[in-house]
């Protein structure tokens, strides 16, 4: 589920504030992708449960956080798959793999948006022999790169896929690297920016090497550099990011018990063509045996996440990496563009996008539940917040409407129809056939706010929002005005 939250830094003496600005009806997400150029498009892949997985596309106007759902992509080829993996986005191009039962990812899916809508192509990737974890796909400017792991501990190939003048995506080259394929449980990463691609992996032994591949004057791709990690001890590559000729690498020390030392290094290519370390920062260790690290570049800032939070470091003119801001409650970041950070939350496994302040402080994700499914016709907004419950097998929450005309009447509707797909506009966004009043009408106070207590018991007794798939606020002014429609996250 995609919850787009705008949060502010916590300041001593001030209550945390947050504003919910968008969301859609999704199950727990498998992957999140963000447009690498302007963060104007966010795509969430869900695993579908009892239906095939799908890609949910959200678009925002430039310079705003007002994301709205614009497409659901579920082509017939998704029918026999479990989930969507490794979403990469560049403008109107989405590239990803599908996870199929006990089958290596041998097919790259490329979706493109044109004036006529969305279309997709399947590209067969050669040399893939084993199942793999990690970020195995990246896309940039009409080109995609794919990791093609062979047998365990054999060299990994980099497969280059490009769009030809006829608009067909096809394999154009394969470059061999000195990176060895790890065992199935260990992740690999690939990144692409222009004519530079890099591959890293969490291997059981080694120096934390990253292979750089580039085309020559004739367009033939090959490995052009092999970047080692710290010279002391043995290290594994946890995450990599690339922007221009700056490469960020997160490495973890091997051969020691948890919590293991972890280091962030910035490698930059100099005038001679050699890659050199231009920044280093020791990261806080986590108690997890193998924490899931991620790194993103938004120069001069670098964002790193572990299993608990995301940290934004500012690279100073002297090369120091200074902690600037911390975002708590994020399990993994999947994009960081123009200060917008997208990722999956720690507790809910929902996907969120926030604007990270460029100032010292801590941003804690608000405990809101639900997402926007249709644009409101008025200024009011609806948000759902958890409240404490001491009753076993019960849920308690409150629905709060803000920004409504003082004195107006407001109420909350719910829909329990899991198949209902609200329209993207219209007077009533909830499916009218299954809409049930979840709370009685109440008058909006002088501040434009009204709060509805919601309560449900899981079992024979059902009240309020129980088992709701949608929640929506309606304000009775001269004409009914919608607030943001919400989906309850169970």
Description of the structure:
There is one protein chain. The chain has 490 residues and is mainly β. It has no helices and 39 strands. A five-stranded mixed beta sheet has the order 2-1-30-29-28, with no helix packed on it. A five-stranded mixed beta sheet has the order 11-16-17-18-19, with no helix packed on it. The protein is globular and about 70 Å long. Residues 1-27, 419-427 and 458-462 have low confidence and may be disordered.
Mind sketching the topology for me?
Elements: E1 2-7, E2 18-23, E3 29-34, E4 41-46, E5 54-60, E6 67-73, E7 83-90, E8 93-99, E9 107-114, E10 117-124, E11 133-135, E12 137-140, E13 143-148, E14 155-163, E15 169-180, E16 187-193, E17 196-201, E18 210-215, E19 221-227, E20 235-243, E21 246-253, E22 262-269, E23 275-283, E24 294-298, E25 301-305, E26 309-315, E27 321-328, E28 330-337, E29 340-345, E30 351-355, E31 361-364, E32 368-369, E33 381-386, E34 394-402, E35 409-415, E36 435-443, E37 450-457, E38 470-476, E39 480-486
Parallel strand pairs: 1-30, 11-16, 27-31
Antiparallel strand pairs: 1-2, 3-4, 4-5, 5-6, 7-8, 8-9, 9-10, 12-13, 13-14, 14-15, 16-17, 17-18, 18-19, 20-21, 21-22, 22-23, 24-25, 25-26, 26-27, 28-29, 29-30, 32-33, 33-34, 34-37, 35-36, 35-38, 38-39
């Amino acid at each position: 589920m995609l919850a787009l939250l705008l949060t502010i830094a916590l300041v001593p003496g001030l209550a945390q504030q947050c504003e919910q600005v968008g969301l859609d009806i999704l199950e727990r997400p498998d992957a999140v992708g963000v447009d690498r150029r302007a963060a104007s498009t966010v795509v969430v892949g869900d695993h579908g449960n009892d239906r095939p997985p799908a890609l949910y596309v959200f678009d925002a106007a430039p310079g705003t956080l007002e994301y709205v759902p614009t497409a659901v992509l579920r082509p017939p080829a998704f029918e026999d798959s479990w989930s969507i993996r490794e979403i990469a986005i560049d403008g109107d191009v989405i590239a990803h793999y599908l996870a199929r039962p006990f089958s290596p990812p041998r097919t790259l899916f490329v979706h493109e948006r044109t004036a006529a809508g969305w279309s997709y192509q399947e590209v067969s990737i050669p040399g893939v022999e084993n199942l793999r974890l990690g970020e195995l796909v990246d896309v940039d400017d009409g080109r995609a790169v794919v990791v093609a792991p062979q047998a365990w501990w054999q060299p990994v190939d980099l497969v280059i896929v490009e769009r030809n003048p006829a608009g067909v995506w096809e394999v154009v080259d394969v470059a061999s690297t000195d990176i060895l394929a790890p065992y199935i449980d260990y992740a690999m990463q690939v990144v692409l920016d222009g004519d530079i691609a890099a591959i890293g992996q969490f291997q059981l032994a080694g120096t934390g090497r990253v292979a750089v591949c580039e085309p020559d004057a004739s367009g033939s791709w090959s490995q052009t550099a092999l970047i080692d990690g710290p010279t002391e001890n043995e290290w594994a590559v946890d995450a990599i990011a690339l922007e221009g000729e700056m490469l960020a690498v997160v490495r973890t020390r091997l051969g020691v018990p948890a919590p293991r030392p972890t280091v962030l290094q910035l490698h930059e290519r100099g005038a001679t063509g050699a890659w050199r370390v231009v920044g280093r920062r020791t990261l806080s260790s986590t108690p997890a045996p193998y924490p899931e690290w991620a790194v993103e570049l938004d120069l001069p800032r670098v964002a790193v996440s572990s299993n608990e939070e995301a940290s934004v470091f500012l690279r100073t003119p002297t090369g120091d990496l200074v902690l600037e801001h911390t975002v708590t409650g994020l399990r993994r970041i999947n994009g960081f563009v123009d200060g917008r950070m997208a990722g999956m939350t720690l507790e809910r496994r929902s996907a969120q996008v926030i604007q990270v302040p460029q100032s010292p402080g801590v941003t804690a994700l608000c405990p809101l539940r639900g997402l926007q499914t249709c644009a409101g016709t008025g200024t009011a907004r609806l948000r759902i917040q958890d409240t404490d419950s001491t009753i076993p097998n019960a849920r308690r929450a409150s629905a709060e409407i803000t920004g409504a005309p003082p004195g107006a009447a407001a109420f909350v509707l719910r829909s329990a129809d899991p198949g209902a797909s609200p329209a993207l506009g219209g007077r009533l966004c909830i499916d009218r056939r299954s809409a049930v009043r979840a709370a009685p009408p109440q008058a909006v106070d002088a501040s434009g706010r009204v709060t509805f207590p919601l309560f449900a018991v899981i079992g024979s007794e059902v009240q309020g929002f129980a088992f709701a798939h949608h929640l929506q606020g309606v304000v009775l002014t001269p004409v009914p005005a919608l607030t943001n429609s919400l989906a309850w996250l169970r």
